[in-house]
């Protein structure tokens, strides 16, 4: 662990992508789905399929499932975990939700029975009609090792954690903040994104590393022009955007040259939603709910292909000096499960600041989000290892504090988290030539024809856009004059263009060059 490379993917539960990793006949103690009769009840207000009573958990047949995407905010997660859906919140999304946010009573134990309930309600809000049984039953599906050969292949050949929990029963931004700060400054949902730009003032792992003589970089998969890690921690990291936030192509160069920093964070392309395993971005976002396959190729296929690329780079790190495969750990994590089904109830959790008042939406941060995949790749890990102890995102900070001597706890959450350094149990390392060589499935060409698909931003992109526009106005970044015209409506292509214009000022290494900016401005003003 002289060097650590952390890649954080998007919106999948353990059952959804690793649930079929091991079965009873494999001789492992693994909390998966094989051999279990798992199901969720169908609410009596559903228009289709109520005679069936239950939806059983089955193998996914669509590599883009769930499509449209499932709900992931705090109020959706409450329904998924406890099957509580306030009448005023039925068939609602986003700003349509209201207190008490489908929240459980204090101390209530989640029974993981509300995934079907929430998906039917969310689908109806997205699509303007209730789903058929075939449509809503996709929320109760998961993928096999044959469908996701790279992820499952690495889990089998190295070590996987079967009780790794997301930190907040909610969305991306706050869970990513816990990975790198052990808190989210009381924020519980992504919106409004300006809250993260201004209110998330927690000390970050990056600052702590630098204060103790450690180096770090954030590598962002092209063509994403922004780093969500940077924006989430804008108040603390903005001065580092010019030097520490770089394209993924630099990771390839640094890895080959043996010049990786002590800590590397890899961001997939989160803005467009490809290469990150995120579920389908949703046909429901086209005008008039046009029912076309908006998001092929599946992000789950692109995610497995990107993981294969990262693993290949890591495996080939043979430098005699600096970083190499022998002294570097690759850790594969997720931010949150994103509404995909999991059968294991999440535990209670220590609030980051027990004496602090309740956070956004009245949440007290006293319970975890539910399980996500987590895999450790290292020549010092016994192949086929399964770690059953409870871990969480802050276990990364706890491990680095213990092994790198970078100071005391950030919050009580990382103070209570179990480090994972015990996984390096081999006395001699395995040679990379003996490692598994899983082959990713072919990823179909991505739709880039704006006229045909009106290139879709991810949910993260949509959530961040108002904050980006507000940032531009406050920092005198020139936005297209056409935006000021009465009745002007942004297309999704325009939204992407605005991200590019603003990113060129915020993230100079990630944003486009002057020629592209001129092209964008001319487009907007034509």
What does this structure look like?
The protein has 526 residues and is of the alpha/beta class. It folds into 3 domains: 3-16 and 144-427, Alkaline Phosphatase, subunit A (3-Layer(aba) Sandwich); 36-142, no CATH class; 475-525, no CATH class. The protein is built from 19 helices and 14 strands. It has helices at 14-18, 74-82, 115-127, 133-136, 149-157, 172-181, 194-198, 205-211, 228-232, 234-237, 241-244, 248-257, 299-315, 394-404, 412-416, 450-453, 459-474, 492-506, 514-525, and strands at 3-9, 39-41, 54-56, 58-59, 141-142, 159-161, 164-165, 216-220, 245-247, 263-267, 328-334, 375-377, 385-387, 391-392. It is globular and about 65 Å long. 51% of the residues are buried.
Major sheet summary line: 8 strands, mixed
Average residue pLDDT: 91
CATH-level-2 architecture of the largest domain = 3-Layer(aba) Sandwich
How would you name the CATH homologous superfamily of the largest domain?
A: Alkaline Phosphatase, subunit A
Strand content: 5-15%
Number of helices: 19
User: Would you state the CATH class of the largest domain?
Assistant: Alpha Beta
Distance between the termini: 54 Å
In helices, the fraction of residues equals 25-40%
CATH fold name of the largest domain, please?
Answer: Alkaline Phosphatase, subunit A
When the domains are counted, the total is 3
In angstroms, what is the radius of gyration?
A: 22 Å
Main sheet strand line-up: 9-8-10-1-11-12-6-13
- By helix and strand content, what is the structural category? alpha/beta
Return residue spans where pLDDT drops below 50 for at least 5 consecutive residues: 282-295, 448-456
